[in-house]
Write a structure and sequence with these properties.
Elements (H helix, E strand, L loop, with lengths): L19 H9 L4 H9 L2 E4 L10 E4 L2 H8 L6 E2 L3 H6 L11 H11 L5 H7 L3 H15 L1 E3 H16 L8 H21 L11 H26 L7 H7 L11 H30 L3 H12 L15 H13 L5 E6 L3 E3 L2 E3 L4 E5 H5 L42 H18 E5 L6 E2 L5 E2 L4 E6 L2
Parallel strand pairs: 2-8
Antiparallel strand pairs: 1-2, 3-5, 4-12, 5-8, 6-7, 9-12, 10-11
Helix pairs in contact: 1-2, 7-8, 7-16, 8-9, 8-12, 9-10, 10-12, 12-14, 12-16, 13-16
The protein binds protoporphyrin IX containing FE (HEM).
The site of protoporphyrin IX containing FE has 24 residues, from helix 12 and helix 16.
Length: 452
C-alpha cells in the first residue's frame, strides 16, 4: 500500500483528556483500555506522561483507517521495537519479534511452510485428539473448558509442530508456558523494573521454565534429524527450509527460537478461541444444534482438512468468537518516524497501540456488537477500509503466520467436540484474564453429555 499524506501537513494527534490514573489504567487493561481512550478523545489519541525520559509517549489507534495506516505499512515505519518485542527477545530472536530488516528474510523463509497446503500436511491431528478428549469429558460429566482446551492445543501443537506425542508431558509443559507468558506481561506493563543483572526470584522461575520448554524443543529437533522420513510435523520442514532468494538455511539456534515462538504464540490463542466458542455454544442450544447438524451431515467418521469447506457455519462460530474475544486484543508497534494515522500526526518514538478488541466491540462498526451472532460473518468479504475493522490475526505484512493453522485446528476441534457432545455452560460470564494474550481468567465450567 502507499504511504498516507506526508506527516508534516497533518495536525498532531490530540492528547487524551484523561487524568494520569486513567491513562495508566488504559495501558494496563489491554482489551477495554483503548476503547475508553477513543470514547474520550476520538479514534487516534496520544497518552503523554512525565517524566518523558522514563515513560514513553503512547498513541491509541481505534479506527479501521488508523489500523490500515499503522499495520499496512510495508516499509518498517511502524516497527516491532515496542517494549514487549524487546522483552520477548530474552527467549530468542524470531519472526515474531525481529525488527523490520532481519524480519524480511526470516518471514520469506517461513511463509511457504504455513500455506494452506503445507498446513494440511502436518496439522491433521486435531480430530483424533479432540475425539479422545470429548469421550473423556462425557465420562467426567463436568469439565473446566479453559483447562481442557489448553491441554488439547498443547497435545496438537506437540504432534503438528514438534512431531512429538507429548502425552502426559503436555500437562507438564502447561505451567512453564504460562509462567513465561506471565513474566513477559509483567515486564511489558511495568516501565520501571529491577536492573537486568539482579537475580530476582521471578527471573529464576522464568529461567527454569525456559529450560523445561527448551528441553522439549531440543528433543524434537534431535528426533526429526535422526529420522527425517517419519511424520515429524513442522520441525522437519524447518530443518529443510531455505530462503527462496538467498538459499540460506536456519541454524539450529534459529530453528529452536522459531519453534519456541510457535509454541508461545500458538497455544493460548487457539485454546482461548476454542474455549470461548464452546462456552458461547453452551449458552445457546439453537446455535449449538446448527453446528451439530452441520457435523452430522458429514457422517460418523474422523473429520479431515477436506471437510473444512462443508463446515462453514462452524467456521463462522470461530470468527464470531475471535471478534468478541480476540486473543490478541491489542497490536503494538513503535513509530520509527513521524507518520500520518487516520489524518493526524503521530511523532517518531511513540509506542502505538492498535485497539483490535475496541474495534471488534465498536457499535459504529458492528450492529449489536455484544451479541454472539455467527451469521454476521455469512458472506463476509470485506473490502476497502472495512477489512481493517476485524483484526483477530492482525493485518498487513506482519499478520499472523499461523492463521490457516489456527483456523484448521479450531474449526476441526469445535466440530469434533460438538459432533460428539452436548455442552451446557454453567456460568453466565466468560471470565476475562490478561496474561499477554486474552485468556480465561478462571475456570469455565460446563456440563457435558453424549450426543449418541
Ligand atoms: C487463534 C489463534 C491465533 C491468533 C488469534 C493469533 C493472532 C496473531 C496476531 C494478531 C498476530 C499479529 C501480531 C502483530 O502484528 O504484532 C500474530 C502474529 C504471529 N502469530 Fe499468531 N495467532 C494465532 C495462532 C498462531 C499459531 C497457531 C501460530 C504458529 C504455529 C502463530 C504464530 C504467529 C507468529 C510467528 C506471528 C508473528 C508473525 C510476524 O511478525 O511475521 N499464531 N498472531
Amino acid at each position: 500500500m502507499t504511504a498516507p499524506a506526508h506527516p508534516s501537513t497533518a495536525p498532531l494527534a490530540p492528547e487524551a483528556p484523561l487524568p494520569v490514573r486513567d491513562k495508566l489504567a488504559a495501558l494496563r487493561v489491554f482489551h477495554t483500555g483503548p476503547g475508553k481512550v477513543a470514547a474520550a478523545a476520538g479514534p487516534v489519541a496520544l497518552l503523554t506522561f512525565t517524566p518523558r525520559w522514563l515513560i514513553p509517549r503512547y498513541a491509541m489507534v481505534c479506527s479501521p483507517r488508523g489500523a490500515r495506516d499503522v499495520l499496512g505499512r510495508t516499509d518498517g515505519a511502524f516497527d516491532k521495537q515496542h517494549i514487549v518485542h524487546r522483552q520477548s527477545q530474552a527467549f530468542g530472536r524470531n519472526v515474531f519479534n525481529l525488527p523490520h530488516e532481519p524480519w524480511l528474510g526470516r518471514r520469506r523463509l517461513l511463509q511457504p511452510l504455513f500455506t494452506r497446503r503445507h498446513v494440511a500436511e502436518y496439522a491433521g491431528h486435531m480430530s483424533t485428539s479432540a475425539a479422545r478428549l470429548a469421550d473423556d469429558w462425557i465420562a467426567r460429566g463436568t469439565v473446566d473448558l479453559d483447562e481442557q482446551t489448553r491441554r488439547l492445543t498443547l497435545q496438537v501443537i506437540g504432534r503438528s509442530v514438534f512431531g512429538l506425542d507429548l502425552g502426559e508431558r503436555a500437562d507438564e509443559l502447561g505451567p512453564p508456558v504460562k509462567l513465561v507468558l506471565q513474566w513477559l506481561t509483567g515486564r511489558s506493563r511495568r516501565p520501571v523494573r529491577a536492573p537486568g543483572w539482579l537475580p530476582t526470584p521471578a527471573r529464576h522461575r522464568m529461567r527454569t521454565s525456559l529450560g523445561q520448554i527448551r528441553a522439549v524443543i531440543d528433543e524434537a529437533i534431535d528426533a526429526a534429524r535422526m529420522d527425517p522420513g517419519r511424520d515429524a510435523g513442522l520441525v522437519t520442514l524447518l530443518l529443510a527450509a531455505d530462503d527462496p532468494e538467498t538459499g540460506v538455511r536456519l541454524t539450529d539456534e534459529q530453528i529452536r527460537d522459531e519453534l519456541f515462538v510457535f509454541l508461545i504464540a500458538g497455544r493460548d490463542t487457539t485454546s482461548t478461541t476454542l474455549a470461548f466458542s464452546l462456552w458461547s455454544l453452551g449458552r445457546d442450544p439453537v446455535l449449538q444444534e446448527r453446528v451439530a447438524q452441520e457435523v452430522s451431515g458429514l457422517g460418523p467418521r474422523a473429520l479431515t482438512v477436506d471437510d473444512l469447506p462443508k463446515l462453514a457455519f462452524t467456521a463462522r462460530v470461530i470468527h464470531e468468537a475471535l471478534r468478541l474475544c480476540p486473543p490478541a486484543p491489542i497490536i503494538v508497534r513503535s513509530a520509527m518516524q513521524d507518520a500520518t494515522v487516520d489524518g493526524v500526526r503521530i511523532p517518531a518514538g511513540t509506542q502505538v497501540i492498535v485497539g483490535a478488541y475496541a474495534m471488534h466491540h465498536d457499535p459504529s462498526l458492528w450492529s449489536e456488537p455484544e451479541l454472539f451472532d455467527p451469521d454476521r460473518f455469512a458472506g463476509y468479504r470485506p473490502v476497502g477500509d472495512d477489512r481493517w475493522r476485524f483484526l483477530p490475526f492482525g493485518a498487513g505484512p506482519r499478520s499472523c503466520i499461523g492463521d490457516h493453522f489456527a483456523m484448521l485446528e479450531t474449526t476441526l476441534g469445535l466440530a469434533t467436540i460438538i459432533g460428539r457432545t452436548r455442552v451446557e455452560s454453567l456460568d453466565a460470564d466468560f471470565p476475562i484474564g490478561l496474561p499477554f494474550t486474552l485468556t480465561a481468567g478462571g475456570p469455565v465450567p460446563a456440563r457435558i453429555t453424549s450426543r449418541s
